[in-house]
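Inverse folding, one chain.
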């Protein structure tokens, strides 16, 4: 039986959240492919250019768009929430690669978690804040 030495696969991890979407992001040295839940990024994000540019924007800020493949497991929320969660996860993963990446990413706002979530409905109201129509008589 031969013993093979395997080269360790270098990957950098980052987790992003937005609304109810959670994205677990892996950056692997590659040529700039985006794979989300086993599908090519263009297919998963329905060929929407703004979603794709949001996902790639942290890499483009640092000029590394052709150096790393983005592999994502995204759950919850819709496409917008998932795309922005992926963006945060990519930015966090880039910070683990090199701490000098943190300043330009922070300056662009990629490391800030958007904390806005849907407000809960209250009893006695129709929605979170919408009250039933008031009738004086």
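Residues assigned per position:
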């Amino acid at each position: 039986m031969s013993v093979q030495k395997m080269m360790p696969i270098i990957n950098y991890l980052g987790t992003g959240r937005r609304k109810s979407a959670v994205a677990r992001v892996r950056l692997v040295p590659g040529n700039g492919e985006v794979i989300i839940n086993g599908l090519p990024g263009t297919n998963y994000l329905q060929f929407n250019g703004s979603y794709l540019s949001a996902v790639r924007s942290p890499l483009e800020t640092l000029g590394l768009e052709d150096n790393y493949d983005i592999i994502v497991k995204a759950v919850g929320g819709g496409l917008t929430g998932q795309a922005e969660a992926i963006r945060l996860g990519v930015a966090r993963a880039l910070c683990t690669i090199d701490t000098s990446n943190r300043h330009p990413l922070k300056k662009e706002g990629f490391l800030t978690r958007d904390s806005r979530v849907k407000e809960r409905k209250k009893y006695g109201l129709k929605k979170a804040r919408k009250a039933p129509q008031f009738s004086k008589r």
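Strands lie at 12-18, 21-29, 34-36, 39-40, 68-75. The chain has one domain: 12-108.
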